[in-house]
Amino acid sequence: MLQRPKPSDSEADLLKEQERFLVSGAPLAAKVIRRPDKRRGGGDGGGGGGGGECQRDIVTIEDLPDDMPSLTPAPSKKSCSKENRVRFEDQDTEEVLDKHDTHISAVLSRIVVSIYCTASLVVLCLCFRLFHVYSFTYSLLSPSISLALFMSRSPPPPPALREASGPRLPSGPRLLSGEGLGGPDRSAETLRIHQENQAMLQTMSRGEILEEQRKLLAQLVLGPLMVSLGAMLRASILTPEALPPSSEEDLPLKPEKQWVHMGKLEPDKLEWTRDLPGPRRKGTQKAMQARFDFAGSLISPHEDLPTHLGLHHHGEEPELAGYSLQELFLLSRSQVIQQRSLSLNTLASILTKARAGQFASALSGSVMTTLLDAGLLFLLRFALDDNVEGVMAAAAHAIRALLVSDQDEAFLDHSFSWPGGLASFPLLPCSTEEQEEEEEEEQGLPENMRLSAKEKEERRNDHDVARHDVVKGLLRTGLLSRLRYILEVVRPSPRVVQDLLAVLTRISRHSSHAATQVLDCPRLMDVVMSEFLPTSWSAPSLHPPPSVYGLPLAGALKLLRVLATSGRHACARLLSSLGVRERLSRLLSPEPGELLLESGQALRVSAEAFRLWAVAASYGQACDTYIPGPEDPAPPPPPPVSWGHVGGLQAPLVGQLKGLVAGLDGPAGRRESSLALIPGYLHCLGAHYHQLPKQVPSLRPYAVRPLLHDSSSLLPFPRSCSAVCDLQGHGPGPEAVPSLPGLASAGWKDGPGLAVPSSPFPLLTALCVLLDSITGIHKGLSSKFSGLLVSEPVIGYLGSCCRATPNLSNASAWVLRHEHHLLYLLVRLAHRVAPKDPAVARHASLYHQVAMALLPWLLPGSEHLAHDLLCSVVFSKDFLPESHSGGPEALELAELKLHAGAPHLQAVGPLLREACVQLPSLRGCYLGHLAHLEPSVLGSKDAYLGRTPWVRSRLLPELGPGPALPADWPYLPLVTLYERTGGGELQVEELPRGALQAVTHCLQWLLLLEVWREGALKAVTPVAKLARLSCVFLSASDLFLERPVQRLLWALLRLLTRPDRLDSLDLDVAPPGLASFQDLFSALLVQYEAVSFGDPLFGCWLLLPLQRRYSAAMKLAVFGEHVGALRSLGVTLEQLSLPLERYTSPPEASLPLLQLYFRSLVTGGLLQARCPLLYTVALAHLNAFLFSEGPAQQVSPVAQRVRVKGLIVLKDHLLLFRGPQQDSALGFHTYQQLPPDRAQRLERALGTPDSSHGGTH
To answer: Where is the RPAP1 N-terminal domain (predicted)?
Structure first.
C-alpha cells in the first residue's frame, strides 16, 4: 500500500515512491481542472490524470464555423492543447511570420534588455596616427541610449512587386537587385529582366496597370505594407544622404483617418523605417567609439556595410555599423536566447583578438582592462549559470578566451623538453600598492592583533578579490562546482569540453592552493577520469566525433600534468586515488597509431601521457609502472640490473646523432628539424655517460666533434634571440592585466627569441649540459672543449649580456630562467677549462663579469646556481687576472699621473693587494651572511640534480619578492650589522663577534668591485651606495674610527666622488628602503654630534650632501637645528675631495638659508678656524647676495649689520671677498680695495629709508 510522503523523506525516497505509484497504475486521488477564461470568451479546460478527458462547456452559433479560417498554413502541432487556444480575427499575420523568423536581422530586432548594472564602462576609441585622440566615457546604461536596440529587418521585396509599385524610372533597375541569379552574367540578366518589365508596362494602359496591382495585392499576405516598403526602398535609393524630419506628405504610405489609433498623426515615429544614411567622416579632434562585428574584428567608422549583416541598430549613431562594448554588455542580458549567445560569442572573439595584440595599434586603452573594470567577470559567471545550453557554451568559450592564452600554452609545451622545463612559475599577480600599505600598517601592531592571510581574504568581498586576482575571484563564486555540473550532467559538445578543460588547466597553473581546490572539488576529477580518460573505448565512427565522452583527451592529460606539477602529494593522489597509473599503462604501451583515435589526436594523447609520466618520475613516482610481473606466492628473485642491459643503447643514439648533426648543413626545413631533435639526443647521452664513465672517451670523435669544430657556423647566437640582451625588454603586452598575469608570448614563433624554431638556444644548452657532465667525470677532456668557449659568437654574446639590464616581470621570467641556466653552464665550463687552457684563461675576466652580472638576475628556484657561483667563480683568483698581473701597481701609476698632488690615492694599491690575498676569507664572510638561504639552496639543488625523494614540487616559488639575491648583495654585511645593532650606541667591543672583521671584508670586496668590476654594481644607484656605506657610521659609536675600516672608507669615498660618479649622484631620489635621503642625513647629523669627535672622514661624509646642487633642506638642518655641529666640523680644504666650486656656484637663492648663514657668522657659531670649508661657502653666498641686483629692501639689513663695530674681520672678509680658491690659506681671495661698482651698490643699500632698522634675526 502506498504511503503519504513524510517530512523526513529524502529526494531519493520520493522518487522511489513515485516510481512505485506509476508501476501500480492506481488512479489519481486528485484531478487538475483548468477553468476557461470568461474574459476571453472561452479557453482551454482540461484535467490532468490518468483517466479520461474533463468535459467543458462549448458555445456554438449557427452558420459560424468552430475554427476561424487561417490566412497562413497552420504550423505543426507541438502539444495537444495548442489547438484549443483562442485566436482573434484581428491577429496580425506579420507578427506570426516574424515570430518564426530566425534570420540574424530578425533575432537582433527583438532586443529586450534586463537592467543589471550601473557601473561606468570606459569606451575604447579608434585612433588615427595623424590626428589627436581624446578618450571619453559613457555610463553603462546611458539615458540617451535606448534599452531596446532596433535594426532594419525586412528583406528586400520580390522583383515582381518592385516593378509594380510605382512608375518607371529613367535609369537602370532601382528595385530589381538580381538576388537568386547565379553565374558570371548576373548583372546582364538583371538588366534584361528590367527591360522586359519596362516593355510590358509600356504596352499596358493606366487601368490595366492598376488592375494588375490590385490582383497582386490580393495575392500577397502583407498587402499595402509591402508596397509601402517598396516605395520606401526606392526613396532611400534616390536620397542616400540624411533626410529632414518627415511630414505627412513625405510618408511612404498616406495614413487614413479611419485606421485605428490614427486620429493623431506622429510622422516622426515612422522615421526609423527609412533607409540609414551612409556613414560620414567626423571631426578628428574627438576620438570615435570602437565598434566590432560578430567575428570580433574592429570596424572602421567610415566603412559602409549592408544592413542585412545585422550590424546596424538604432542607437545614437544608427548609420554606423557594429556594436560597441557597452551595447554588447546590454545585449548579453537580453531575454532572447539567440541575442545572449551572440553577444557572448562576440565578446569571446574580441578577447581572443585582444590577447593576440590585434587592437594595439588601433585603440587607445586596453580592451581587457576596460571589460574587467566594467564587470565582465561576473557577467560571464552569471551567464555560465544559464539553463540554456547554447548560452552556457558561449559563456564557457568567453571564460576560456579571458583566462587562457593559446600562445602561452603552446610556448610552455614547446619548452617542456628543455633542461628544467618541468618546473614553472605560478601565475600569481604581484602584490599591489594597497596590499603593501596594509602590510606596512600592520607592522606596528602586536603579533596577536595581526590578521592572518586567510582572515584577510575572508573579509574582502568578491569584487575586491576579483579586482586584484581574476582566478581567485572566479574560485570565490563556486566556479568549480558549476564546471563539474556541466561536465557531468549537461554533457556539452566537444568544443565546450575542450574549453572547460583548458579553464581548469589555467586555474591549476595559478598556484598550488588553486590546484588543491581543483583536486578537492567533489566528483570533478572523477568525472574527468571516467569520461575523458577511460581505460577502454571503441574507435569513433565519425571524424571529428560528435561527442568526446568515452574517449581519451589530450586536454585531460594536460590537466593532470599541471596538477601533478603543483606538488608530490598531489601527484601521489592522482596516481593512487584516481587511477592515473592504470591510464598511463594503457596509453603508453601501444603506439600512437594503435590508440583507435584520429592520428593527430592520438599523437597528442601519447605525447601528453609521456609528459605526465616524466613529471611523476621526477618525484620518484610511477617508476615501477612496467616492473611488476605475474602474481606468484613465491616468485623467483629478479635478475640483478646492470648497465650492461643498456649497453646497446649507445650505438643507435650516436648513429642518429651523427645524422642529425650532418643535417645542420642542409636546407632550412631540415636544419630546423635537426635543431629540434638534437637536444633530446644530447640529454639522453649526457645521462648515459654520467652513469657509465668508461664510455666517455669514445663520444667526442663520433658525434660531438662537428658541433665543436665549427661552432661559429653551426652555433650562431645572435643578440636578437636573447631575452637578456633584448633592448626593448620582454615586458607585458599591450593587453596585459595585472590581475591576470601571463607569458605575453603572442607571436613567439614568428618574432626573434629563444623559442623560435631557428634559435640555437636549445641545442647550445643541451650541448653545455653534456659537456658539463663529461668534464665533471673526466678532467682530462676539459681542454678539448675550449673551442666552444672562445668562439666568436659565444664571446660576443657574453659581452652583450654584461652590458644588458634585463627587466624582470611575470612575462619575462619564464624565458629569463632558461637563459640564466645557459649562462651558468658556460661559466661553469669556463671554470673547469680555464686553469688548463690558456685560450680560455685570456677571457677569464669576461666570464667573471658574466658571473657577477648573473648573480642578481637569478630567479627564485635557482638558489643552488647562485651558491655554486659564489663558491667557485666569484671569489676565484684565477678569474681576477688583474690581481696577479700588476693590476694594483698599474692603478697607482695611473692615479699618480692624473692626480700628482693627491697623496691619499697611493693607498688604493696596497688595499687592493690585501683584498686579493683575503679572497677566501671574503667568500666565507658572504656565505655566512647568506646562510639564511640554506633551505632554499638545498631544495633547488635537489631539484636541479634530480634527487627525486627530496623534490617537493615542480612549481617554483613566487616572483613577488624578486630575484634570489638582491641587487645590492655586496653591501649585505653592512646592512645586516645595522639592523642587528639598532641606534649605533654600542662600541666595537660590544658588537657581535666577528662584526669588525665582517665589515672589513665587506669594504675590501666593495673596493675591489669599484676598481675592477664597476659593471657588477651598475644596478645599485649612487645614492643607494652612499646610504649603504653610511651604515658603518650608524652601526656603532666608534666603528668608523678603526684603522682598517677608516682606510677602506677613505678609498671608497674618493672613488664615489670622482667627477663622473658625482654627476650621477641624485639625492632627491629616495634610497631603497628609506622614505627619503633627508631622513638618513638627519640621523647622520645626530650621530656626528654625539660620537664624531671632529673626525675628518665623518665630516667629509656630512659635507657631501651640502653641495649647492642639492636641496637646501639639508643645509637648513645644519645651520638651524644642528648648528652645534659647526664647532667640530673641521674638514680642511686639503682633505676635501670635491672642488670648492660645487659648494659656491651658483649663488644661493634661499633667503632663509642666507639669514642662517649671516646669523652663524655674526654670532660666532661659524668660524674660519673651526669650520674653514663652510665659512668660505657662507662668505661666498652672502657676498654674492650683497652685491647682486636684488631688491634693496632685502640687502639693506645685512649691509647695516656689517657696519656694526666689533665685526671688523667679518666685514673685511665679507665685503672684500673676491672668490674661492682651494689652495689658499684662507680658502678664498680678497680685494685690496672694494671695486667702485660694488662700493656704489653698497652705498645705495645703506641709503634706504629703512636702513636704521637693520639686523637679521
So the answer is: 192-220
